[in-house]
Amino acid sequence: MSSNSNNNNKENTMTTDHHSCSMCGKDSKTRCSQCQSKWYCGRECQKTDWKEHKKICFPVNSTCTRCLLPTSANQGICCVPHPEYLMEDMGSSFGPDGQTLSFSCKACGEHFSKVNKDRHQTNFSFQPAHAEWCFQGRHTVKPLKEGDERRICNDVATINRNDGDTTQQFQQRLTTEMDPSTVRILVIQNGDGFYDDTVEPVLDLHMPLLEELQLINVCFSKIVLNDAKTPRLSTIEMQNLPDECDMELKCSNLRDFNCRHHHGDCEWVQDMLDTTHQLVSFRTYKLGLDEVKFGPHLAMLKHIYIHRSDCLCDVVLGAPHLQYLRLQGCYSLESLKIKPKGGSRFTVETVNSNMSQQVIKTLKNSPRVMWDGDEVDEHAGVGGSPMEAMFRMMH
Ligand SMILES: [Zn+2]
Ligand SMILES: [Zn+2]
Ligand SMILES: [Zn+2]
Ligand SMILES: [Zn+2]
């Protein structure tokens, strides 16, 4: 901020109404020119008050850059909830205190729980109580620092399935609670944190600006994501996709694929891999893959984590710049092909996987593979990544 600590640059506005000085109570004819809400008898009182008043003095009709409310709202107090799309699910449990959902917030770093004492209501209280807000402070009109995500964004939307929603009601909310033409980050989830199959919505919207999509614990009957509908989609995270979901995911700009719990036909996964050229990270947990092929066009692909694809028997790796492959709890690996011969070297971990002699031979002999030959200790190399930690909790 520039020179606003000096009130001399705030010209007082003259008026004929009757007001008393907010400092000394005397009759006053002037008020703060910036916010026009504080009255003073004269310059002295205004000067004395400025040290405090400047914290809540904003131009008339200005908007808070953090919460997007008028700066006059809530007596200047600014409260921002944890952004749903940055909440990492750290598991849930039932106990004598009711239902507990644990989270970690990537915007503020806080770990906290939401506790619901009555199973039949979704009436959550925060623990610890001070963790309710991602940001709690004063409104501001300054631009926020890049990377400060404790803020409300117009182009971020979260749609929760509520108790009692019918499929039709929920379907309608997909277009009334957000604007498909402007949404950039979208979270659609079941409000109580568990999978629910009583609503079966369809996701088939033109969302030209959509970059990140999270579909969590909602029983979609059909999902259409392709270059015509969602040309900018780069990050997708899905949890509990119903087996019979009619799924299309063909987005050339997809970079980050993360899917947990889908046991149906997985041909759409191969279509996804064949369409994108930008994929950097492929992470799955309990995905019903029989075979998977990472083609040579996947020049950006660095990380592959496949955990508990129990029926996965055939893997072809053509990605030329792969750095890390983790096959964990894959119990049926029969065939592994690695090409091209001249690609990058990459680390392989095969935790608790069941591999045929052919797979073992390939891992031992490929010039690209760094593999210590033994099954890695269950917890080796796991601690660092929150994703791995989550995999372990869900396991
Ligand atoms: Zn005064
Ligand atoms: Zn003011
Ligand atoms: Zn937060
Ligand atoms: Zn605010």
UniProtKB/TrEMBL annotation:
Every MYND-type domain range: 21-57
Gene3D superfamilies: 6.10.140.2220
GO molecular function: zinc ion binding
Pfam families membership: zf-MYND
Keyword Oxidoreductase among record annotations: no
UniProt keyword annotations, A-Z: Metal-binding, Zinc, Zinc-finger
InterPro entries, A to Z: Znf_MYND (IPR002893)
Name of the molecule in the record: MYND finger
Biological source species: Seminavis robusta
Lineage: Eukaryota, Sar, Stramenopiles, Ochrophyta, Bacillariophyta
